[in-house]
Amino acid sequence: MHRRAAALLRAGPRGGGAGALRRPRNLIEGLGCGSIINVPVIADGRTLGVLNILDAEATYDDDAVVVAESLAPPAVSALLNLEKENR
After folding, report:
1. Within a domain: residue 1?
2. Which of 41, 59, 64, 81 is the Cys-Cys partner for 75 at CB 3.0 to 4.6 Å?
């Protein structure tokens, strides 16, 4: 079975699992964002960063997660280049 690395979260009261994000959650909700997709950007087993995609509640579905995951590979190249420049 394939397990997704990306996560679709709900910032609203039904979000349940976002308790560790209380302060950012208040900011996110204040901006009117209730749907969040977080996609880890990983190269060679090392997390380089996370793509955070936010919009109004109930905006995203599983298809949106698939599209968001497709953004991670180009982000790997960009972040690795940025690391090289900052050495």
Report:
1. no
2. 41
